[in-house]
Each structure stands twice: as structure tokens, then as C-alpha cells.
Known about the structure:
Chain B: InterPro entries: Aminotrans_V_dom (IPR000192), Aminotrans_V_PyrdxlP_BS (IPR020578), Cys_deSase_IscS (IPR010240), PyrdxlP-dep_Trfase (IPR015424), PyrdxlP-dep_Trfase_major (IPR015421), PyrdxlP-dep_Trfase_small (IPR015422). The complex is a heterodimer of chains A (97) and B (500). With 97 residues, chain A is mainly α. Chain A has helices spanning 8-23, 28-44, 51-77; one strand at 78-80. Chain B has helices at 3-19, 22-50, 60-74, 78-88, 115-126, 138-157, 171-185, 201-212, 230-236, 259-269, 342-378, 406-411, 423-426, 433-437, 442-446, 459-479, 481-487; strands spanning 55-57, 103-104, 165-168, 192-196, 216-220, 241-245, 272-276, 295-299, 310-314, 383-385, 396-401, 416-417, 448-452. The radius of gyration of chain B is 30 Å and the shape is globular.
Amino acid sequence: MPAVSPSRRQVLRLYKQLIKNANQFNDYNFREYFLRRARNTFKENKSVQDAAKLQSLFAEGQRDLGILKRQSIISQMYTFDKLVVEPLHKHGFKPST
Amino acid sequence: MTRSTSVELLSRLSRVCSLRTRSSAVTILASQLARSYSSAAAAAVKLSDDVSLETHTDIQRAAREQAKTRAAASFTSPDAASSGTSALQHAYQENTGFGTRPIYLDMQATTPTDPRVLDTMLKFYTGLYGNPHSNTHAYGWETNKEIENARDHIAKVINANSKEIIFTSGATESNNTVLKGVSRFYKKTKKHIITTRTEHKCVLEAARAMINEGFEVTFLNVDSQGLISMKELEESIRPDTCLVSIMAVNNEIGVMQPLKEIGALCREKKVHFHTDAAQAYGKIPIDVNEMNIDLLSISSHKIYGPKGIGALFVRRRPRVRLEPIISGGGQERGLRSGTLAPALVTGFGEAARLINQEYSSDIAHVSRLSKKLVDGLLSIDHTSLNGSPDHRYPGCINVSFAYVEGESLLMALRDIALSSGSACTSASLEPSYVLHALGKDDAMAHSSIRFGIGRFSTEQEVDYVIKAISERVKFLRELSPLWEMVQEGIDLNSIEWSGH
Ligand SMILES: Cc1ncc(COP(=O)(O)O)c(C=O)c1O
């Protein structure tokens, strides 16, 4: 693939998708971790300009999105009791930033 | 329908087909097939609407049963029961509207499997089932390739060569392989092993087993901070010493030994240096070359990988020789025969790859939460941190709560999964030998609790834990006659205890 850097819109879309799929984890700790990771990774790389670097970050993000999609479904299939820090209602689908 | 009519029908059908052009018959068939398939698919979709894909695991039952057996057991010792049962009523926060599953803070016992690790492993339980040692077909090659990738990731974390990584069933097996294997290989000329008093049980027991085989073992003492003395180590090394085995990070108190100094000394004295890095691998920076480590044990389930797999680093230059404890087909350089478990190996490899990728953010996260937890806990009166405050892995925090019995505190903290020490001693009421080695008395050792923080811990959990511990320590102390005396300013050491 040629090193065409992703557009701003594509990057934003990827970020939204990552947040959305992280939010679907039924497991509290995994949900919080992947939310934190998505936010931190995008914050860290906010000012990356280099096309090749952007391209590789974008590809990595897409791979991660695939994992989140598959694993959040598994997390919804195999569920466990809620943790003592988790409210029983409104789990998972908190408004995201 | 009789047989003859059906045959007749068939032959009529074939006549019809031959009358029409072939292609149109095919289209008719295809469209009919498609229709029947799509209705089947619709049925399947309907089914999944009724039958939930979710399968819920109720862990509360196990918790209740365990609590019952524990309560029954504690009735045999009345003093433990009195504080224990009343504390149990306070084991959960009053707040309803929240879940009941405990917060997991026992990261030294094991860690949750990272979903990215599971994602890698699933392939090997579905399609990639080849034996990695089959070299005559693609099934073997594809699995083997993934295993070698995993080996690269695992080696990279400690700056080793992938050829120096041997897969085992875990750190217990790696430690046994080293202590038994190295000493047996050199038994003709060398008969002495050095280790420490604060090692994990598997090292201590393997060393004891070698005493039965005629070896002499020196168990080094540690100071009140949990650190060994370099001077004592140097004095203990003899011409017939074949192995020095000192753990990198202690599993109970999180203290880090000075690996680099030990490595330099062992290299200078030409003694093999082994370190049990089950708690250190991926958590503190380790470079086997810079630190002159000859052998190093790793466990996958301490780094968010699957349980039942680990590795042993065995240096190739200068070569370290050992006698395998498992004989067989000669896999893993002949040091550990037996077919590898590709799912476990690649899961372990992915866990190591994630360590390489996430190391700095993991450490920053763990350190931040750890500082918050330590500050919160130490702000309670009469608490102290066990082990060196400087030479430590921040994710392992061991705190003593004076005038509280550790077991009662753990019973009163059923909403937090903690341990009063290592997993093997938490089952018994025996106080920790590690804390004893630090010079703590029984009472102090009994009132200690270990907190483990990891990649998936959250700030919210830490806040909850600080609040819960503060409340319940206060509650349990109010029940304690000792605490009353302390409040009245009586020096407990001045009391003459009757009895024993
Ligand atoms: C320091 C240390 N060594 C060895 C082990 C045993 O590891 P494994 O469970 O992989 O056999 C542990 C874990 O309990 C440990 O903490």
C-alpha cells in the first residue's frame, strides 16, 4: 500500500469507532482500559505529521478496532456479576467523550 | 409414495430437464436452493432472538460456600470467630444499586488475560491445530512460524536471543529445571548452591530436594528492607558453588534485588546466576546481557497471558549446561521435551509483544495508582509499608495494620480480592515466612495484606479500596482490646503475657 496518510475525517472516525467498541465490553476493567488506551494513544499522537508514521498508526488502529469488535462480543457472551464499583444499571453505554 | 412411482417421477423429471436447456435447469435449481437457504437463515436468526448468546457465570455461589466453610472452620478457634463473624456483616458496602463481585487486587497471584491475548489464542483452538513439530506439511509450518514469532517477542523483553528461550509449563517448572538441572550437571565437581530465605516456595523446595541429593545449600538472610547483603553473598561463594539463585522481585513485598551487582559478582567468580523473574518480567527493566544473568524464569500468567505456560532463558554464550528433568523427543534444545501448546505459546508471545508495546504506559499507570494507594493506606494510624520503599516494583504493596488480625481483615473485605501474602500461604493461617525473614514478629506478619495493581486496575477501584480499608480497620480495631490499651497509652511491650 502506498503511504497515503489518512484524512482527518478518517482518523476521527477510527477514534469514534474505537471508543464505541471499547464501551461495549461487558467487563468493567477491560472497558475502562480500552477507553483509556484509545484516549491516550490519540492524545499522544495528536501532532504527528509524518505521512508514513500516520499511515502505520492508522493501520495499527484498524487492527485494534478489529480486535475490539471481536472481543467485545465475546465479553458480552460470557458475562459475570457486576463489580462493587459498578452501578447495576446503565452499564456499558455511558456517554463517551 | 411407492418406490416404482418415485422412480417414474425421477425419470420424468430427467426428461423434463433434458428438454430444457441445461443452464435454465441450473438456474431453477439454484433459485430454489437459495430460497430454502434463506428461509433456514431466517429461522436461525429467529432462534438467536429467543436463545440468548449470553452465558452468565454466577460467582456469588462459590463465594457464599467458601464463606460458609471458613466460618464453620473458625468456630473451632473461638477468638477468631468472634471478630470474624461480626466483621462479616460489614463485608459489603451498604450501597445497593452496585454489583457484588469483588475488586481484583491480587495481581501477584495472577493477572486477568488480556482480550488481545485471547484474540490471538482463539485461532489455535479453531483452525490452526497443526503440531508445530510436524515439518512435513503446512499445518505444522504455520503453527511453527507463529511459535517462533512468539519466541522473538518474549526474548526481546529481556534483550535475549530467541534461541535462548525454552518454553516450560510455568515459572515453577523453570525454577525446578534450573535448581535441579544445573546442579546435577555439575555434581561431580560442584556441590554448593546459594539462594535466599525470601524466595518463592518452588525455589526453596527445589533447593531442599537438592540437599537430599547431597548438595549443600546456603540460604542468605535479608535485612529489614528485604534486601540481600552483597558482602554476605560474596563471602558465601566457594570454589565448589555451582549456582546462585536470587529472585528479581519478591512476590509478597515487591522488593527488587540488585540484579546488576549480583550478576557482575557471579560473572567475576564464574558462578552461574539464576533469577526467578516471575514477578519482574515485563514489570521492571531487565537486560540479561547488561546484568550478566545466565538463567531467568518467566511466567506467562503474571503478564496478562494464559496460565500453564512459562519460559526459561538459558544463556548460550558463555554456554550454560544443565541436565533436563524431562526426557523425550528432544524439543526445546533437548531441555524440555514434549509437544508445545501453540495456543498457550502464542498467547504468551502476544502478552510479551504487548509488554514491549505498552511498557511505559503500564508503568506510568501502575505507579500513579500505587502512589495514591500507598498514600491513602499509610495515612491510617499505625500502618507501615513492608519492604524497601525505594527498591521496589510499585505494583506490589504490602502493608501492616497494627492491632488488626490480617485474616479477620480479609474476611471483612469480601468486596476486595486480596491476599495476606503468597497464594500458597494464604490458604493456611501460618504467618508469612517472607515477613519473618524481614524480622517482623508474628503479630505484624499476621496483620499484613498485599495489594497488587496492574494494567486493568482503575482509579475508581483504588478510591473504593482506600475508603473500605480505612472504615473496616477502624471497625476491627474498636473490637480489639489491644487497641483500647493503645488508646489509653499503655505500652504493650510492658505487659507480661500469661499463658504460652
Ligand atoms: C516469584 C514467583 N516464582 C514462581 C511462581 C510460580 O509461577 P507459575 O505459576 O508460573 O508456576 C510465582 C507465582 O506464584 C512467583 O510469584
